[in-house]
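FAQ: What does a ligand-bound record look like?

Like this one, built around pyridoxal-5'-phosphate:
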Amino acid sequence: ITPDPAAGQAVKAADRAHVFHSWSAQALIDPLAVAGAEGSYFWDYEGKRYLDFSSQLVNTNIGHQHPKVVTAIQEQAAKLCTFAPAFAIDVRSEAARLIAERTPGDLNKIFFTNGGAEANENAIRMARLHTGRQKVLSTYRSYHGATANAIALTGDPRRWPNETGTSGVVHFWGPYPYRSNFHAEDEAQECERALAHLEQVVAFEGPQTVAAVILETVVGTAGILVPPPGYLAGVREICDRHGIVLILDEVMAGFGRTGEWFAADHWGVVPDLLTFAKGVNSGYVPLGGVAISEKIAATFAERPFPGGLTYSGHPLACASAVATINAMAAEDIVGNARRIGEDVLGPGLRELAERHPSVGEVRGLGVFWAVELVRNRGTREPLVPYNAAGAANAPMAELAAACKQRGLWPFTNMNRLHVVPPCNVTEAEAKEGLAILDQALSAADAHTV
Ligand code: PLP
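The answer part, i.e. the structure of the complex:
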């Protein structure tokens, strides 16, 4: 890494001149200029290196610049960059086969999109046309994307400025034992009461009006909430009883993140539709999609599917998916995620929780962990209020800054820091990150009462 601060300033100035950023007040942001990245690390023009414990937006499951995937993209670019979806293209078919072979049950057909939001848009479209019903149920603690239906499905505050009032979405509460909406005293009670709540929402909405229930198999950005045993099977049963399509959103949880190819594999639950993006090719080229059950595919056997995208099944994206999935299999990257979770991150985070009074709970699996921060462990008052901004969010901003200062790039949301390194993070890297986190957490401890 050769420092070149002048180049960094030029890159930043060029960004500020013309790039309009996501989710931001444009005048108030100060993006870091990035000079390069490899594996679990990236670096800036000052020569400072960061351990990427965010996997960017929890998408670089194979880390940065995996050589096999970079080569596959280069080779595909030389061969055939782009081709319309209506044609049969070798890498597209191969990507679909590799994905369909790994998705649970009879999810055997793949509709490709450019990302996660479009995957959910199309899954909802399929569910509505398949059932002839309109409503879709999703949880408050969720994020499903930023296009019209996907943001309406989303439970987190990013939905608020986007609501049109015509979405047909009804929100309900999923299980969250640490902050139970059901006054549950243990996981089993939480599971039972969360299912009774969903059953009641379905009854009061009118089962014959509900097309789909969509859930993140393990809730991602909204808290890394691992469902209690029996919950997903219970939701599957409610859906079956009422002819409701079950959609599992595995955009963040899929492709190794939880230590299985798909999070649904932990509980043996098969949805009717499964949406994916991010880890399918680590985001090297934009790609997402919907894995479709035989039953729903049959709905569109004789009747046209009224949806499509110019870049559906884009050859460069599909070539990078083929190379990613093959590399993940050859290098046992999914197994690595499971082992790192069981042997390093789980025990390491639980140990941090014992020593830092600001840590209310740690939870997760694989390389998908949340550290939930509180002002007081007894009352569980969050370290910052829900959706805090500016001064009210200072304790979390200070924690993030303390991580960055020590060379750790964190993922923070609300009162949580998520530990979400690449699935091929090494044991030494995971321990390095935990050691930095140990130091940085003093910044949060200072706000406990
Ligand atoms: N669904 C989940 C669970 C996600 O985490 C995300 C993105 O963070 C999305 C959907 C939206 O994906 P995209 O940003 O690719 O549209």
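Follow-up question: can I read anything off the structure? Yes, for example: The domain at 5-65+332-445 is CATH 3.90.1150.10 (Aspartate Aminotransferase, domain 1).
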